[in-house]
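Work Package 4 report. The design task specified in the project plan requires that, given a folded chain encoded as structure tokens, an amino acid be chosen for each position. We show below one input record used in the internal validation round.
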């Protein structure tokens, strides 16, 4: 569990060394894990079947993720496309399995009831996923991280309107700042799906090879593990100040210790210029501390812990 260290008074506008930060840390609180809510929109178009290993192997891997004890702390919902009405956005806004805490067998049981068939109305499916994700964000997920996971074996292909990758990308981008979209592409040569992931704020799609059943399942499992790590990591809820204390956003520092050397104090970088450092979710009224992408990747790749220290002036430049 990450630890949040709450300190006493530090000099505003001064430069603190690592030792100075340690001197400021007079009280300690435990960071609360921010809950994660994943809205799965799952492609069951005809091309997912057709004698290929995609449907069965991806289903087995998805079910393993939903039922694994390692998924504790994550909730998920599950919807499928195409729906018999195909082009109706409303048909995709209500999942087959509503948001439920993992691990659970409910999502896997629903997967067992589905079979591939039909086209790929990705735009309308994403519209429904966004509508449901927004309802979660406004309700039980208001203090959590809500994200969409689009599982598909190809680019949009239907008789519906807005059947292009660029249009789906724009749709994902319209909510990416609050609801990112992860894309899992099941098949080969699916580089176009990177556009949707980029629009959704998650940079690149996870592409699952269809070379054989074992490879599909292994790649899908790896994608789920990376999505889980990305969703759970690098997002720290600011704890309640100790009795008699107040939160001062100008006196916050974030430090990473990997156990292999001295701790590194990460610079505050609200715009995440260069993708390094950390920022607030809202610079005016912050409730969470977020690590920028490159720094987040570096922290996830190393063992150790992240401390959030209060009391000394926030460091904004390269510090050690």
């Amino acid at each position: 569990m990450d630890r949040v260290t709450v300190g006493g008074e530090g000099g505003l506008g001064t430069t603190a060394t690592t030792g100075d930060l340690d001197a400021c840390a007079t009280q300690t609180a435990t960071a609360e894990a921010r809950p994660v809510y994943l809205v799965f929109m799952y492609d069951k178009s005809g091309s997912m079947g057709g004698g290929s290993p995609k449907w069965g192997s991806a289903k087995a891997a998805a079910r393993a993720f939903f039922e694994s004890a390692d998924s504790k702390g994550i909730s998920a919902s599950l919807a499928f496309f195409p729906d018999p009405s195909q082009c109706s956005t409303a048909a995709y806004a209500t999942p087959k399995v509503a948001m439920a805490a993992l691990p659970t067998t409910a999502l896997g049981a629903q997967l067992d009831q589905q079979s591939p068939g039909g086209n790929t109305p990705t735009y309308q499916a994403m519209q429904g996923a966004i509508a449901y994700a927004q309802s979660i964000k406004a309700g039980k997920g208001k203090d959590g991280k809500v994200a969409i996971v689009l599982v598909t074996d190809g680019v949009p292909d239907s008789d519906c309107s807005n059947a292009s990758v660029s249009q789906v990308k724009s749709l994902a981008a319209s909510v990416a700042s609050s609801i990112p979209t992860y894309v899992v592409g099941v098949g080969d040569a699916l580089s176009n799906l990177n556009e949707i992931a980029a629009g959704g704020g998650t940079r690149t799609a996870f592409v699952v090879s269809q070379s054989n059943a074992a490879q599909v399942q292994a790649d899908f499992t790896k994608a789920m593990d990376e999505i889980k790590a990305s969703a759970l990591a690098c997002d720290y809820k600011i704890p309640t100040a100790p009795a008699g204390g107040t939160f001062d956003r100008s006196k916050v520092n974030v430090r990473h210790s990997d156990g292999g050397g001295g701790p590194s104090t990460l610079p505050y970088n609200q715009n995440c210029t260069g993708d390094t450092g950390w920022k607030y979710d809202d610079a005016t009224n912050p409730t969470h501390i977020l690590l920028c992408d490159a720094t987040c990747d570096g922290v996830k790749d190393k063992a150790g812990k992240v401390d959030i220290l209060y009391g000394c002036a926030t460091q904004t430049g390269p510090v050690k």
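Residues 36-232 form a domain with the Rossmann fold fold (CATH 3.40.50.410). Validation will be extended to a larger panel in the next phase.
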